[in-house]
Design a protein that fits this description.
The structure holds two protein chains of two kinds. About 10% of the residues of chain A have low confidence. Chain A contains 19 helices and nine strands. Helix content of chain A is about 45%, strand content about 10%. By secondary structure, chain A is of the alpha/beta class. By secondary structure, chain B is an alpha+beta fold. In chain B, the strands form four sheets. Chain B has a four-stranded mixed sheet with strand order 4-5-1-11. The radius of gyration of chain B is 18 Å and the shape is globular. The model of chain B has no long low-confidence stretch (mean pLDDT about 90). The chains are: A alpha/beta, B alpha+beta.
């Protein structure tokens, strides 16, 4: 009963041309089928339209699509000048059948073409994988011959171009149009990132996210791209850009949450590799926590830095006696490290910043660094359910230092702690020539994690 | 053919010969199956779909002694079908190219996959993106002349497993590994997931026809796997 009135409603909404078409179809159907098999509509539906005017088959078909159920849509629409008539006045159906009209409507309705770059790229991938010359952006992947094996081929090809797709994404968005909307594109094309900085977006391996908390990340991570596996994307995350207004997070949790939002846009599923160095260890730990909640696989890499806010290396540039420093630190960590931060900025970062950005940005970097210290002081260090790889230098500034660092991390990663000795000293880990070894070690840790992780 | 406990029946059919007959099969399908059939762009995909549904209904009708037209299916959140009428009969369908296979088992969960072998892609690249480390290593060490065969052995076995588990590609492909060195010897090297590793998953592979390869995963070791040609059943 419900069905009947729905059809009646639909018929009422058709235009005169469409009604004529429908009427003819029903007439033809009833005349060719014995009544008992009315429910077995096994033949293809062909519609003949007699009109002297121009007939836009594509438009007719799409307009019908919104008005009648799918199985009422003719698969073929043929335009004729007039219907051939038999002597008794009836339509000569035999003669009609011989008139070969347009191609299959499905091909004629061809293709909603791509409307943006992402759709264009996805379309090219689909065409290649499915081996079809015409695909519309609203065509359903599985309706045009897609299957599981082809879907992973699509994902692989997309990843090669820097488009991060997951299997679930393709299953939840089965047309190019829907898929393109759900995809996080290569960084350049999206709205500006607040925190994520692309060092290299191409590659099919799980990306390495380098955490940084002020605007000086450029000096640390760019060279990694030269030596990390070229098939692995690399991103940096900064608490705030120094180009615009500086954003000061109120807590480490807030910073971590912002970082994760952007990480997930480039990488929706684990395993996740992220690296902390110097002052980003707390935000790194918090990120591990947040990812734990969604049961993602987490690999935290730490480059020669202890947990908790005592960071000894800020002072280490001059190679000063560290044991004395340790005593001071334990007495008044925040003050000591604050001073150290200022020193670090003065020695190392300032000249480089001046070269690149000028005084204004130096101040911003300092502001960010100090804010970072403040929020670190309030952070609760806790264990996380994942794996930690710790890089320690072969030449620590003080013999007891590596043990101190190791000790500070021991209880934190519940899935295991992996220690790797690397070349160079704390401050030279990311510059030539030591960066080559740092990168190799990082890459080995990541590959090992990918191989062994649960 | 009755299906006894711990036996597996695998039905095979080549659809190309049935082209004309698929039109009569459609009357067995439910309304939503008919609607889904109408959405296929290419006649051959539509034809395979209709024939697979018809065959599934007919066979279920046979095993459950029920009317094929009256069989109701329900689908899990991942799209895995099961039959409301039967609790202890499990089944799984797969098709590729012109061939359909349907596996049935009593009391053991079953997953099947068939693939027509193509050589127009880079199998090692796919493996690197999705497979486990053991499988990537094994495939990289395979002779070039054997690499497609090895890839497909691996793929069909993995696919049959994730279909048996019922999660499709949501299941991480790199968290379990299968062997791929022989056509007829198949097994798991590891299954990371705690829940799944506790079960006794078994793999079998077979060659349905030239240019095709297939695999079956069952939860438990079947006593016997019998292969039938559904051609006769369809006439």
């Amino acid at each position: 009963m419900l069905m009947k009135s729905t059809i009646e409603n639909r018929i009422e909404r058709l235009s005169l041309e469409e009604r004529k078409l429908l009427f003819f179809k029903v007439k033809q159907f009833l005349e060719t089928k014995p009544s008992k098999s009315v429910s077995e509509d096994t033949k293809r539906l062909v519609a003949y339209v007699a009109t002297k005017d121009k007939l836009n088959i594509v438009q007719l078909r799409s307009s019908l699509k919104s008005k009648v159920p799918d199985y009422m849509i003719p698969t073929k629409i043929v335009k004729v000048e007039r219907f051939p008539i038999l002597p008794n006045g009836k339509v000569d159906k035999k003669a009609l059948k011989h008139i070969n009209g347009s191609t299959l409507v499905q091909e004629a309705a061809k293709t909603a073409g791509p409307t943006n770059d992402m759709e264009r790229e996805l379309l090219a991938i689909w065409k290649e994988v499915l081996q079809l010359s015409t695909i519309g952006i609203h065509d359903n992947f599985f309706d045009i011959g897609g299957d599981s094996l082809l879907s992973i081929q699509i994902i692989s090809s997309a990843r090669k171009l820097g488009i991060m797709l997951s299997a679930n994404q393709l299953f939840d968005h089965q047309t190019i149009s829907e898929l393109s909307k759900s995809v996080s594109t290569r960084i350049k094309e999206l709205k500006p990132w607040d925190h994520l900085v692309e060092i290299r977006s191409e590659g099919s391996k799980a990306p390495l996210f380098c955490l940084h908390t002020d605007g000086s990340h450029f000096f640390f991570y760019n060279l990694l791209a030269k030596y990390i596996d070229s098939d692995r994307p690399i991103y940096a995350l900064q608490a705030s850009s120094v180009k615009d207004k500086v954003k000061l997070h109120r807590t480490v949790e807030e910073m971590a949450s912002d970082f994760i939002d952007e990480i997930k846009r480039v990488q929706p599923q684990g395993p996740y590799h992220f690296m902390a160095y110097c002052f980003s260890t707390a935000v790194g730990l918090e990120i591990a926590h947040i990812l734990n909640k969604t049961k993602e696989r987490v690999h935290y890499l730490v480059a020669d830095t202890s947990s908790k806010s005592q960071n000894l290396y800020a002072i280490s540039r001059t190679g000063s006696r560290v044991s004395g420093i340790i005593k001071v630190l334990l007495k008044n960590p925040v003050k000591t490290v604050k001073r150290a931060v200022k020193q670090r900025i003065n020695w190392y970062v300032k000249p480089a910043l001046l070269r690149r950005f000028g005084n204004e940005d130096q101040r911003k970097v300092e502001k960010l660094s100090h804010n970072n210290l403040k929020i670190y002081h309030n952070y609760q260090w806790k264990a996380f359910d994942g794996h930690l790889s710790l890089l320690l230098t072969k030449k620590p500034y003080h013999p007891g230092l590596n043990e101190f660092i190791l000790d500070s991390w021991k209880k934190i990663p519940l899935q295991g702690l992996n220690i790797v000795q690397t070349e160079g000293q704390h401050d030279t880990l990311f510059s030539e020539p030591d960066v080559k070894h740092t990168a190799e070690n990082l890459e080995n840790c990541m590959q090992e994690f990918e191989a062994n992780s649960k | 053919m009755e299906l006894h406990l711990n036996n597996v029946h695998v039905w095979n059919v080549d659809v190309s010969l049935k082209d004309k007959r698929s039109e009569s099969f459609i009357s067995y399908l439910s309304l939503d199956e008919k609607e889904r059939a109408s959405k296929y762009r290419f006649e051959k995909d539509r034809s395979v779909y209709i024939t697979a549904k018809f065959l599934l209904r007919s066979l279920l009708g046979h095993y459950l002694k029920a009317n094929p037209k009256e069989i109701a299916f329900e689908y899990s959140e991942f799209g895995r079908p099961s039959c409301l009428k039967s609790i202890d009969l499990d089944f799984n369908v797969s098709h590729s190219g012109n061939r359909i296979i349907i596996g049935f088992s009593k009391e053991q969960t079953i997953g099947v996959d068939i693939e027509k072998i193509k050589t127009d892609f880079d199998p090692l690249n796919l493996a690197k993106n999705f497979f486990s480390r053991e499988e990537i290593t094994a495939l990289s060490q395979t002779k070039e002349s054997d690499v497609f065969q090895a890839f497909y052995r691996c793929w069909t076995r993995k696919e049959s497993f994730i279909k048996a588990v019922g999660e499709g590609l949501s299941y991480p492909l790199d968290s379990f590994a299968v062997t791929m060195d022989y056509d007829h010897k198949a097994g798991f090297l590891k299954i990371d997931n705690d829940n799944d590793s506790k079960k006794d998953w078994r793999l079998h592979s077979f060659i349905p026809a030239e240019g095709y390869i297939a695999a079956i995963t069952t939860d438990g070791n079947p006593n016997i796997i019998e292969y039938f040609d559904a051609d006769d059943f369809l006439s």
